[in-house]
Specification:
heterodimer, A: 231 residues, alpha+beta, OB fold (Dihydrolipoamide Acetyltransferase, E2P), Ribosomal Protein S8, Chain: A, domain 1, 5-stranded mixed β-barrel, 4-stranded mixed beta sheet, 22% helix, B: 237 residues, Ribosomal Protein S5, domain 2, 9 strands
Chain lengths: 231, 237
């Protein structure tokens, strides 16, 4: 088996040769071209045994089944709500997936979720045509009240959450804010206005420096420093 | 009459000095600048986003729209009439066709990706610089594409084949000038744009395409370096 042409965590560009020979398998974000494996998009290399895959570095959100996202109510229909997902496609939250409560036929649905409301929802089905079905039955799925909503680059979301949520829980404790991160790059922050601004600043910094190794420790130090400075 | 020495002193196979930068338009999903000598092209990419009016939507594949525009002050002194023209529509169309073969359209069915190519300064070879910039911007926007696209124009001046014409060379009066813009997909050597303005023999056009392929390898290197540079700076911090 020949060595691949790239190392773990290398930045690769579309068309770049990642490996040659049949020893490796093309994973997500790569394709096979004859006996070569090439990159299909801009991304970071991740070699997992014999498979080479790419972690995307940029791009709009593409809906995926199982993702928890924050959406905005865009329209109210006869049997549910149309939700804006911060992607090219709109989603449908139907009445039976939204609540267990009994809603009389012909009731005014805006009383539950009205235009412009932000909701935390889970995607439970995406068709090949990118029709999205949403559900609000699950822990943490709710309508968002108060606080502020910011939008970040969706490809930076895994970095903002961190390993097993280490980054976001650190920001929560340090800034004393409640934070919900949607996989679609929409983030809800709620707390004291001053703290909200601090949390937003930190998230913007992570978004900018998503490729710096050891970012969690660096951010933690900075937050502790600003917290001490205030006291 | 033979063309023995180029007007700007370059070798016959030399491309003008190139410069590429990625991420120049912060509001866009992806953007890039590509400069070839005095020709500067900016490209901004928005999308995939939903497409209206709805009858334009295609349920089987996404749609790519390319808009090409020369700014009013971009020419050689004469004001370029602003707004769409027959010429800019044609170049937008050929640029779109040059980029389409590399893009995975099934990724964004029913949706659209918009590419805007703007030229603040021109000195011939605008569609080539535009295509180079647009392919960088598309990659920066995270669109799935199997390769970048590199493009250059090959010219025939008198009986000599030359790479990357300038405006002065295009305008030579006492010799016959042919201008052939070519776009190449570097990994396979496929041609995705081939136009011609002038007269040329069969043998010469084959040679011209080979010259374009060699030049595009150099252009591709500049493109790859520019894309990687955007992330390198952050690594060294």
């Amino acid at each position: 088996m020949t060595e691949p042409k790239v190392k773990d965590n290398d930045v690769v560009v579309p068309g770049e040769e990642l490996a040659s020979g049949m020893g490796y398998l093309p994973g997500q974000g790569t394709y096979r071209d004859g006996d070569k494996i090439r990159a299909n998009r801009l991304g970071l290399v991740h070699i997992d045994g014999r498979a080479i895959k790419l972690v995307p570095l940029a791009g709009r959100y593409l809906p995926k089944s199982g993702d928890v996202i924050i959406g905005k109510v865009r329209d109210v229909t006869y049997s549910g709500w149309i939700i804006d997902t911060n992607s090219a496609y709109r989603a449908m939250l139907s009445l039976k997936d939204a609540t267990n409560a009994y809603i009389r036929k012909g009731a005014d649905l805006t009383k539950f979720y009205s235009f412009g409301d932000y909701v935390v929802v889970k995607i439970f089905n995406v068709t090949s045509q990118n029709l999205i079905d949403l559900s609000m039955k699950g822990p943490g799925l709710r309508k968002l009240e108060q606080g502020r909503v910011i939008t970040v680059d969706p490809s930076k979301v895994p970095r903002i959450i961190g390993k097993e949520g280490s980054m976001v829980s650190m920001i929560k404790t340090q800034t004393n804010c409640r934070i919900t991160v949607g996989q679609n790059g929409v983030i809800w922050i709620s707390g004291e206005p001053k703290n909200e601004i601090m949390a937003e600043g930190v998230i913007r910094k992570i978004e900018r420096e998503a490729h710096v190794p050891g970012l969690t420790d660096k951010i933690k130090k900075e937050l502790e420093k600003t917290n001490k400075g205030e006291q | 009459m033979t063309y023995s020495k180029r007007l700007d002193g370059r070798g016959f196979e030399d491309i003008r000095e190139m410069e590429a930068k990625v991420g120049v338009v912060k509001n866009a999903d992806g953007s890039a600048m590509f400069r070839m000598g005095k020709t500067i092209a900016y490209a901004a990419v928005y999308g995939p986003k939903d497409l209206y009016p709805k009858f334009l939507q295609d349920p089987e594949r996404g749609i790519l729209r390319v808009n090409y525009n020369m700014m009013p002050f971009s020419g050689m002194g004469d004001r370029v009439r602003p707004g769409p023209s027959r010429r800019s529509r044609e170049i937008g169309m050929v640029s779109k066709n040059a980029l389409l073969p590399v893009i995975n359209l099934t990724d964004f069915k029913n949706a659209v990706v918009d590419v805007f190519i703007e030229l603040p300064q021109t000195d011939a070879g605008t569609r080539c610089a535009g295509i180079c910039a647009a392919s960088l911007a598309l990659a920066d926007a995270g669109i799935t594409m199997r390769d970048l696209v590199a493009s250059v124009s090959i010219g025939k001046i008198g009986d000599k084949l030359v790479v990357d014409l300038t405006y002065d060379e295009e305008a030579i009066k006492d010799m016959d000038v042919a201008d052939i813009p070519v776009a190449v997909i570097p990994s396979t050597g496929e041609i995705s744009l081939l136009q011609m303005d002038g007269i040329i023999s069969k043998e010469e056009i084959t040679e011209a395409i080979e010259m374009a392929k060699r030049a595009c390898v150099k252009i591709n290197k500049v493109q790859v370096d520019a894309l990687k540079k955007k992330f390198e700076v952050k690594k060294n911090e």
